[in-house]
Design a protein that fits this description.
818 residues; Rossmann fold; 3 domains; ten-stranded mixed β-sheet; 33 helices; globular; binds pyridoxal-5'-phosphate
Length: 818
């Protein structure tokens, strides 16, 4: 394979085939008869090599254009599998499938053994993955920065109905086949030690040294992120923590071999495991270490790159922008100050101007339990210099507040970055240090301004804006739903993949009976795929003619899987009392992980599984109702689930779900939503039209008004259906040999203070569920609903979301790579 430096790998079928054999044999030392895992790795290397060609061209184009750059800082990137997606983006699916076929190999079987890169918990991490896909497709010079966790999101098993967590050793082979290690860009991150002040006797300049710190190496691993059928390949840079070699030597000299090895472990633990909490903080020291490690390594990396092509920092702010994915990376505000002041020797005011012109913060939640704070004592011990800087930022900030509202001490206390117990409020740090603060759906952004961040909004109204979330149509439509893709390619032309507004043209086919039949055929095939997954994972056989009613997402009280479970019990009670006139067969699908320490969420999983056992085992129920809990909900599972869904459950307590993105994946794939007026549901309903959305429940303001004097018993007393449901639950019908198991769940929904007001929404939920069932029984009517949902989902492409970020916040120029 003699090649000069300008040549590129060929993409014809024969070259792909030969390369595949070469990688398998000479790189991995395996043959076609070897385990399919090796063939998967060989194929990824074939594709990665092609990406490297485009990657180099992208670097060259960026080098030449020197465009303004964007950096997406995120503790999570929930990527899932990549092979199918990259083949799609490179336009190589057919050639690769044929090349493999000639070798007697099946592409789908090979794709199926790639493990999910599960470096995230749920929506927030998946959003980051969709964002970088769209940025590459839009040719925006945006780089992702994250952590290369050795263990990603845990694998969920269900044993006797309970969630059991297993470690996800996704790097079992020692490496991720898509990544390229770039040891030459290793950075050093410091923890602990103390600060010492120096005054230069000649200049009088005061400087601070951070001394005696423990040093940890940050080694970057780059993952290529190709755009859709363009030449752009952007970079996701993931940091791996490694102990200093010299550190080890010092300890050896002191004769403490054991302590040296243990300390090495402590350093390398930083990127060992993803914290499995979604929408709640962990408060653990190791988590703070992870956050600072990400932020410090990434900012040092950006500054080092800047200095390769630029002198000084006068134009840095015009040429760089950082988007903070929630408060997790908000130490970036303090760390960029530290780097500019201590290492680049800029005066405070100049450094602060740069920070507040380059940092932008995205809020993801209104839940108080998710708002991060770090104890002052921990901050001083672990990050003495950044903490000093945070104090100074706060001192100057509060002086401004005092000028604007003289004498209003309470307001100063409310706004302060440092709280009454010395804790650092990360959201306050992010807001003070950023020029932009955005929520992730219209309703959420309004609630931020009116509630949580109202004091900040009064101070800086111009900082606040909304950027409604989206999902990438490449993964969530073109790759996940090949039947739909073929139909859309045929009637809209392939351009829909990068211009999702074109879906609206589907409305022109509403009266076309052939199109409508094809639409139903595609849905049926997708439901059969989902039914096969259900049977494989749970052993339950379901009929593909039934209404597939699906709620998959993290298990959380605010998401109200419990409300859905109560509805299932209601349907079961109806069957048992013979109330089955005009019955519509239904398969209720649940899936989702509970944080391992979240007791109530784990109980909800157990309840669902116990209900499933009773319902599915009752011959009187039969096909009228099936209930399944699909274990280990993940990106690759969702790729089968969303296309096979009829009814999308988005039933959170209004005002609690910031946006949701699962709701968008379902809509694009032709599911109809039953939901509350919460998060992006509001905009989904606006787009699809109120007659095409099953709305129920209290509105956000009504929930707020109700909670202080909420009495669940009133709702039980007024509703015989709810009484029947509560009776089945309280009599122990679903926990016959597990006495008292669900007492805490029952007490929760009956508590005066139940913040999720589950029983208050029961009646309207049950009524609207019945409307949905009757709508499903009308085959033609439902076909129209389904087509309209896809046709009107164009807004929810992350291509639109990224264009909004770019127009209003980043202001980057697209760079053509050629
Ligand atoms: C889309 C997605 C989510 C987010 O779902 P929501 O319903 O918006 O909470 C979580 N996990 C996975 C694996 C996803 O694909």
């Amino acid at each position: 394979m003699k090649q000069n430096f300008e040549s590129r790998l060929q993409n014809d079928k024969d070259s792909l085939e030969q390369d595949f054999i070469n990688y398998l044999r000479y790189h991995l030392g395996r043959e076609l008869t070897s385990d399919v895992d090796y063939k998967m790795r060989a194929l990824i290397l074939v594709i990665r090599a092609r990406l490297v060609d485009n990657w180099r061209q992208t670097w060259a184009s960026y080098h030449k254009a020197q465009p303004k750059r964007g950096y997406y800082l995120s503790m999570e990137f929930l990527i899932g599998r990549t092979l199918g997606n990259n083949l799609l983006n490179l336009g190589l699916e057919e050639d690769v499938a044929e090349a493999l076929q000639e070798l007697g190999q099946d592409l789908e079987a090979i794709e199926a053994v790639e493990s999910d890169a599960g470096l995230g918990n749920g929506g927030l991490g998946r959003l980051a993955a969709c964002f970088i896909d769209s940025c590459a497709t839009l040719q925006l010079p945006v780089m992702g920065y994250g952590l290369r966790y050795e263990y990603g999101m845990f694998r969920q098993l269900i044993q006797n109905g309970f969630q059991v967590e297993e470690p996800d050793h996704w790097l079992a082979f020692g490496s991720y086949p898509w990544e390229l290690k770039r040891a030459e860009y290793t950075r050093t991150v410091r923890f602990g030690g103390y600060c010492r002040d120096y005054v230069n006797p000649e200049t009088g300049v005061h400087i601070v040294h951070w001394e005696d710190a423990e040093e940890v190496l940050a080694v970057p691993f780059d993952v290529p992120i190709p755009g859709y059928k363009n030449q752009t390949v952007n970079t996701l840079r993931l940091w791996h923590a490694k102990a200093q070699e010299s550190f080890k030597l010092n300890a050896f000299n002191a004769g403490s071999y054991f302590e040296a090895v243990a300390a090495k472990n402590e350093a390398e633990n930083i990127t060992m495991v993803l914290y499995p909490n979604d929408s709640s903080e962990s408060g653990k020291e190791l988590r703070l270490r992870q956050q600072y490690f990400l932020v410090s390594a990434s900012l040092q990396d950006v500054l080092a790159n800047w200095e390769r092509f630029n002198e000084g920092y006068e134009t840095f702010a015009e040429n760089n922008v950082f988007q903070l994915n929630d408060t997790h990376p908000s130490l970036a505000v303090a760390e960029l100050m530290r780097l500019l002041i201590d290492e680049k020797r800029l005066p405070w005011d100049e450094a602060w101007k740069i920070v507040t012109a380059t940092m932008a913060y995205t809020n993801h939640t209104l839940l108080p339990e998710a708002l991060e704070t770090w104890p002052g004592a921990l901050m001083w011990r672990l990050l003495p210099r950044p903490m000093q800087i945070i104090e100074e930022i706060n001192r100057r900030f509060l002086a401004k507040v005092a000028m604007k509202w003289p004498g209003d001490v309470e307001r100063q206390q409310r706004l302060s970055i440092i709280g009454g117990h010395g804790e650092v409020r990360m959201a306050h740090l992010a807001i003070v240090g950023s020029f932009s603060v955005n929520g992730v759906a219209a309703l959420h952004s309004e609630l931020l301004k009116d509630g949580l961040f109202n004091d900040f909004y009064q101070l800086w109204p111009e900082k606040f804006n909304n950027k409604t979330n989206g999902v990438t149509p490449r993964r969530w439509m073109a790759a996940a739903n090949p039947g739909l893709r073929a139909l859309l390619d045929e009637v809209l032309g392939e351009q829909w993949v990068t211009d999702l507004s074109r879906l609206s043209q589907l409305e022109g086919y509403l009266d076309d009976p052939v199109f409508r039949q094809t639409w139903r055929d595609i849905k049926l095939e997708n439901k059969q795929r989902l039914a096969a997954l259900i049977e494989r994972e749970t052993g339950v056989r379901v009929s593909s003619n039934a209404l597939f009613d699906v709620q998959v997402k993290r298990i959380h009280e605010y998401k109200r899987q419990l409300l859905n479970a109560l509805h299932v019990i209601h349907l079961y009670a109806r069957i048992k009392r013979g109330d089955t006139a005009n019955w519509v067969d239904r398969v209720v699908v649940f899936g989702g992980k509970a944080a391992p320490g979240y007791h109530m969420a784990k109980k909800i999983i157990k309840l669902i599984n116990n209900i499933a056992r009773v319902v599915n085992g009752d011959p009187e129920v039969g096909n009228r109702l099936k209930v399944v809990f699909i274990p280990n909900y993940s990106v690759s599972a969702m790729e089968v689930i969303a296309p096979g869904t009829d009814l999308s459950e988005q039933v959170s307590t209004a005002g609690k779900e910031a946006s949701g993105t699962g709701n968008m994946k379902f809509m694009m794939n032709g599911a109809v939503t039953i939901g509350t007026l919460d998060g992006a549901n509001v905009e989904i309903r606006e787009e699809v039209g109120e007659e095409n959305f099953f709305l129920f429940g209290l509105h956000a303001d009504e929930v707020q008004q109700l909670v202080p004097h909420y009495n669940p018993q009133d709702y039980i007393d007024r509703d015989s259906d709810l009484q029947a449901v509560m009776h089945l639950l309280e009599s122990g019908h679903f926990n016959q040999h597990e006495y008292g198991l669900f007492d805490d769940l029952i007490a929760g929904v009956k508590a005066y203070a139940d913040p999720w007001v589950t029983l208050a929404d029961f009646r309207s939920y049950v009524d609207v569920q019945e409307q949905a069932a009757q709508a499903f029984a009308d085959v033609e009517g439902w076909t129209t609903l389904s087509i309209l949902n896809t046709a009107r989902s164009g807004k929810f492409s992350t291509d639109r979301t990224m264009q909004d970020y770019n127009n209003d916040i980043w202001q980057l120029q697209a760079v053509e790579v050629s």
